[in-house]
Amino acid sequence: xxxxxxxxxxxxxxxxxxxxxxxxxxxxxxxxxxxxxxxxxxxxxxxxxxxxxxxxxxxxxxxxxxxxxxxxxxxxxxxxxxxxxxxxxxxxxxxxxxxxxxxxxxxxxxxxxxxxxxxxxxxxxxxxxxxxxxxxxxxxxxxxxxxxxxxxxxxxxxxxxxxxxxxxxxxxx
Length: 173
What we know:
Shape: globular
Largest sheet: 5 strands, antiparallel
CATH architecture of the domain at 37-150: 7 Propeller
Structural class: mainly beta
Number of helices: 1
Low-confidence stretches: 154-163
Strand order of the largest sheet: 4-5-6-7-12
């Protein structure tokens, strides 16, 4: 069992049920420091999804971490991020059988996305039926301008390094 908490600074904390902090997550992408407003997982808790105040969705693979949280080799990997709405995400749902993510926003829209690629599939209330098998089309809702970003294995967060000579104010210069 695991508890996840979303925070205003964009951080997601993973806790044991005893109340011990196991891990803090910050998105690798441009979406860090934006308040997280929605969280969900799949049924088997292999994937963690988060939505934020700017309408973005981030997806992490957490399966290997949950097998052994104490093992530092078992990392949580951010796999996918995209803008789903122009406004705050207030609801997230992952339908594992259909491989679909449903997002809801304060703009009043409820949209469907392909879970593994972040491709837009449609919105509730559209005149046509949802075509869940055709994920090759790269279309976007009219208020979204960025395509999903798939995180590569080699894309790792840069670590802050201590400098040997810190910056010093030189009033003469």
